[in-house]
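Friendly challenge for the regulars: who can give me the structure tokens for this chain first? No prize, just bragging rights.
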Amino acid sequence: MGVLAGYVAGGSLAGLLSIRLRALWLLWLAAAVQAAELYVRVLGRDVRLPLLVVTVALAGAWLAVNLPGRPRAMKIAAGAALAGGLVNGAAIVANGRMPYLPAAARTAGITPGLATPKNVAAAPGSRLTALGDIIPVPPLHTIISIGDILIIIATIAIIAIAMCAVPRHVAPRPHRHLHPEDAT
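First reply, four minutes later:
Bragging rights claimed.
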């Protein structure tokens, strides 16, 4: 969808490919920490919150390294993505895992009541449930949150904005003179 939005905005893949990303190792490390959070059951539940904090900090550090010098619109979109991550993080911190509405699960074609290393069905004692996975997406058999929507929209915007960037190897077009006397 980001590529489609980029084409509609007059961008090209050359613009997207001209974007140079630095410190990709921070994202790989964040992914590894998140995998440890999800799949290394030996760590126990009380270690998941610090691992979540480390994951968010690594992603934030990557943004801090890559955002200087970028267009304002890209910075705003990156801020929206970060806000989406923080909204999701708040729901996870409040409940230990991301809560989801059983009714939304049923609508999405998922068996309600399932608990995974990352999700738990919302119960009467759940906190910040409105920030959890409450929006069913039946064609994808999934449930998403408000934070997920922010992240998705921001990602689409970042791709479209990057596609509209002038590739570094393309010289800008000279300005055309409007009046013959200006040509001298």
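The first helix runs from residue 2 to 8. The chain has one domain: 22-159. Your move, everyone else.
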